[in-house]
Amino acid sequence: MYMLLPYHGLDNLENQVACALRALPAQDFGSITPTETNTFWTPDGHFFRVVLYYIGLSSSKAQSNSFESALPLSEVPLIQHDITKSTIEAAMTEFEEVLGSAHITTSRTDIDYHASSDWMTHPAKDMERFSSVVFPASMQNVAKLMKICHRRRIPVTGYSGGTSLEGHFVPTHGGVCFYFDFQRMDRVISLHKDDLDVVVQSGVGWESLNDQLAEDNLYFPPSPGPGVMIDGMVLSLTVVLPDGTIIKTRQRPRKSSAGHDLTKLFIGSEGTLGLVTEAALRLTVRPQSTSVAVSTSKSIRDAASCVAKVVSNGIPVAAVEVLDGLQMRCINEAGATLRSWTEAPTLFFKFSGSHQGVDWRCGRSHEPTS
């Protein structure tokens, strides 16, 4: 007994059924005859259901073959960027509508400055240059610019402090440089004194931030070095994704373990997953006193052993830095300090706290280093 099953959903269902039939033994299910009204004669409707099952099965297999979870990088299709002259010129017109011409530069000097540095271990090659450098002033500016670049497939590189040693901001694919300028994105957005945190734009330097926080007897503890921006040392981030979408990695309440730790994910991505435009930072009360103890060693290995001894003796250290003999020689030749340093591996221990506590820590630190 045959029954008529109408179907009005997929226009190409007949083709799908034909493809499914090729993979099935015909004798198991009898025959099937499509009509001009897009209906099917099936034995008790069973064959129709089986065909749909195999259609879904073949579709899922095709998808799994196209999107392997462990696909080798060599088989991943390359991203097709478009940095042709016509595309860049069209994008520049749109950039001007967002920022104004005063905040866009194509100067060779500016492009060279933002593409590489003298202290990089992997400096940019001669052909690795941006087409232009733009200076956004807000998160909304960045989002609009990213949407333009995403639509036109123009590669983007973020630039902030420019202190990278490993070539993170080298424009290996050309495109556009987004410079988070000191004068354009350096605002403290909100300060929460009781909660000991502050929300700032990504162009704020830690030294200038601490100058502002000193008025409220607060302090941003990390001391990574002059000129370093604060994108990494944060409680949460506001990020503009490649397509211009704006996200927050977490809300301000700290005591939460819900969801993935997107903050650390974006910190470790070094700008490859999105551009950080705002950061919430943890603060502490400004210490009464700070001091630095200096110790020289015969080798880097001895210096590392010295740090281990200081820490194992229970001496609280606010920060520690090690410079090798070559770096110490560069400091002497630069003449940037008031004294001449021994050109050997040198440790700098920073201590902070009360006056008595700092004196005690400095004295104790001499024991393991002597």
Automatic annotation (TrEMBL):
The protein's name in its UniProt record: FAD-binding PCMH-type domain-containing protein
Domain FAD-binding PCMH-type: 125-286
Taxonomy, superkingdom: Eukaryota
SUPFAM superfamilies: FAD-binding/transporter-associated domain-like, FAD-linked oxidases, C-terminal domain
Coiled coil: none
Cofactor(s), names only, from the UniProt record: FAD
Keywords (A to Z) from UniProt: FAD, Flavoprotein, Oxidoreductase
Pfam families, sorted: FAD-oxidase_C (PF02913), FAD_binding_4 (PF01565)
GO biological process: lactate catabolic process
MF terms (GO), sorted A to Z: D-lactate dehydrogenase (cytochrome) activity; D-lactate dehydrogenase (NAD+) activity; FAD binding
A cellular component term, taken from the record's GO annotations: mitochondrion
